[in-house]
Each structure stands twice: as structure tokens, then as C-alpha cells.
Amino acid sequence: MISDKNFVDAAEGKTYFILNYGCQMNESDAEHYAGQLEEMGYAKADDFHNADIIVVNTCCVRESAEKRILGKIGELKRVKENHPGQVICVAGCMAQKDGEKLIKKHPQIDLLIGTAHVNSFKKILTDFLADKGGRIYDDMIIADSEFEGNRVRQSGFSAWIPIMYGCNNFCTYCIVPYVRGRERSRSIENIVEEVEQAVANGYKEFTLLGQNVNSYGKDFGEKGMFAKLLRRVNDVPGVERIRYMTSHPRDMGEDVIQAVAECEHICENFHVPFQAGSSRILKMMNRGYTREQYLELVKMIRRYVPDAAVTTDIIVGFPGETEEDFEETLSLVKEVGFDAAYTFIYSKRSGTPAAKMEGQVPLDVKKARLNRLMAVQNENSLKRNEEMVGKTYEVLAEGPSANNPNVWSGRTRTNKLVLWPTEGRTFTAGQKVNVKICNAQTWLVKGQAE
Q1: 230 Cβ partners below 8 Å, 6+ apart?
Q2: What is the DSSP-derived secondary structure letter of residue 94?
């Protein structure tokens, strides 16, 4: 086999480009792909049209995302015709779901890599370029969940840290367990080592990633592992903020909430998707909890962390949802008073049980319900933000706003977006700034730096 050194020499002057779609886990995977490519000697291209290697990191959670990605893959046929020798690699959830069918439909694809092979990308690509590897890697056999190597991080101060992969929940509307596989956790030592390396490189904020972080460590046969991990990361010198996503209400325990309350660096933001306010619909979704149990969980959060921001995900129009079921969702939203909610119209995903359920809700009904839900949540969000006016918050600066270089943006520990004018002062990304809030809007607040 050709050595890594020879491939670094062969890659001299060659470039790569990653087209990334989907969730935060995909963003983290893309950083790992980029790291492995740079270890091989490739440099990032300014534009995908001229790159020697293009990686399309795909998502298939929603049909709309699939259509956009398929359109881009189709476009790459013409791009490749203008760049002889260009390698097109399709990776991620769509590659896992569609496998060989994707290559048959789009023969411009050279290499197909499923979700189980992120850590092996460099070896797979090396073998492929040496004509010693195959074209399709879509089995779900995991060689190693531990992380080695480098990531090319998109932020200079905030880092994604995947702590586990896959999901065991099998919610009836969700494709993730079928394309990401069963849950498998990284060791605490491996995670902490990556955090320590990132701190040494100047990173301050860390988001621990998993499809269901509250299940972290269950595959080790131990209980309470996620709370233990939170406390270990909190104790790493140089860590200033810790976030995590996503939590599952069924698995979130008191030990995690206590860790947030007691640890200095864990942010007071609980993102706890409830998806539907009707226990009947929750059972059809296979969520594993009732409306009453969810409300008790929120009460526990408020008891331990009174100033916490609580956010959620909601699906409207799940098969069989009646007007009465939807009214229960509305009433739960009003009762909890979420700081923010990510709301979605249910859409079929082939391969999931919900796609075959009777009682599919008409699109016009789903749209009308979504509008009613958003009106209620917008009132909640504005009210919660108005409570911030007159108070001063620690904000982690992210950079100038997109519309005005003289206005900076950042986030509070509770993940509220804050804008403030520079007024001739100089700020840097990752800097902590005390901002007094003087204006509240639905999705953000504005203030003055002190």
C-alpha cells in the first residue's frame, strides 16, 4: 500500500471542498472529514467547482433536504465533466439510506461512505486512490468510536464535541436509528482529551453532541454516565461554557439537572423536545413518556435552575392528530412558557412506521395548525425576552452582525441572541462582554455593552 507520506506528496497542490447539509452532528462529521483530508496534504478550495475532491455530506431527515441534495449531486455531473480526475464522495445519512441505488442513479459519484465510517475516511480514501478499495461503504459495522486525528473547526472559539453516535429510541416518525445505527459512546477519557486539546488551541465553549445525550454510556453498562461526563468536562481547566444537545425527556434524570445547577461552566439552557402535547399521540410516536411526565420534568428543571431557559421541538400534524390532540399541544406550550420552540410540519419519511399509519393529516390543516402554534409561541418568546430588559448579562461575542459591521452579536449562557453597537470599541470573537438589555424582540434582544 502507498504510505501516508507518499499520499501527502501526491496531494501537494491539490484541494478539497465539503458541501455539508443537516444537523450539528453532520457539521462535526464535516470537520472530521476536513481534518483527515488536510492530514493527507489537501488544502481547502475556495470554490467546489475547482476542487480535486468534493465531499457531499448528506442529510435525509426531511424530504425537502433530500431534494436539495439530489439537485446538488446532479449539478456535480457537469462540474466533474469540466474537471477531469475530480473525485466526488457522497457521505452521511443519505449515503447510508440509499447505498448502491444512489450511485446507479448518479454515476458521477466515485465513493459512497455511510455514517459508520467517519473515523475511517482517510484510510478508505487512501485505498480508493491506490485502486485497492471499493466504491461503497454502507455497512453498519463500527470499527472504533474513539476519535483520533484533527478536526478543521469552523469556529475559532466554540467547538462541537461528539460524545456518542446512533440512537436506540426508534420514534415512529424518525429515520435516524436506521441511518445512524445503534447507540455507541466514546470513552470519557477520549472525550476529555479532545476537550483539553481544543482548550490548548484557544477554544472556550464546548457543545457535547449526540442524538440522545442522556443515553450516553448506557452501552458501557453503567448508569448516570452523562452527568459524570458533564462534571468531568466542567473541571477541565480553560473550559468556560458547556452546552449539550439533544436531550430526550424519557431519559433525562435528576442527576443531569443537578449537574447543571451545581457546575460553574454548564449553561442554564435545557433543550427538551416534547414533540406533542397529547399522551395519545406521544404513544403513537413511541416517545416513552406522557404529557404529565414531561410537565413534571419541566417543574424539576425550574426547581433546580429557576433562571434556566427551556426550549423544545414540536411536530404538528402527526398521523391521527385530531383537533383535540392539537389543542393539548397548544395548552402545554402556554403552560410551560418556552423561551423558544422549533416547530415542524410532519412529513413522511419512507422506511419509518409513521409513513404507513392511517389518518394522515391534510397539508392545509397542518399549515393552519402550525400558524396557530407559532402565534402562541411567539407571544411566549417575546414575554420571556421582555423579562430581560434592564438586566445585564454575560454574552460570549460571536462577531459582527450580518447586516451591520458596527453591530456585534453573541449569546447569553441561556443561549439568547444579543445584539449591541460597538460605539467605537473593539471586540473579538470569543470575548465575554457584559451587555445591559434595553430592547426585546421575539427572537433576540438588544443592549449596550458596559
Answers
A1: 208, 242, 244, 256, 259, 260, 263, 266
A2: H
pLDDT in tens, 383-413: 999 999 999 999 999 999 988 999 999 999 9
Q: State pTM to two decimals.
A: 0.92
Q: How far apart are the C-alpha atoms of 15 and 234, rounded to whole Å?
A: 38
Can you say whether residue 167 is alpha, beta or left, with left for phi > 0 and alpha for psi between -120 and 50 degrees? beta
Answer yes or no: are the C-beta atoms of 189 and 229 closer than 8 Å: no
Of 36, 201, 176, 198, nearest in space to 94 by CA:
176
Please report which confidence band the pLDDT of residue 10 belongs to, taking 50, 70 and 90 as the band edges: low
* 43-44 and 407-412 beta bridge pairing: unpaired
Q: CA 21 to CA 92: how far, in whole Å?
A: 9
Cα distance between residue 50 and residue 70, in whole Å: 20
- Cα separation of 137 and 296, whole Å? 44
C-alpha R_g of the chain: 23
Could you give the CA distance from residue 354 to residue 319 in angstroms, rounded to a whole number? 7
Percentage of the chain beyond pLDDT 90 is 84
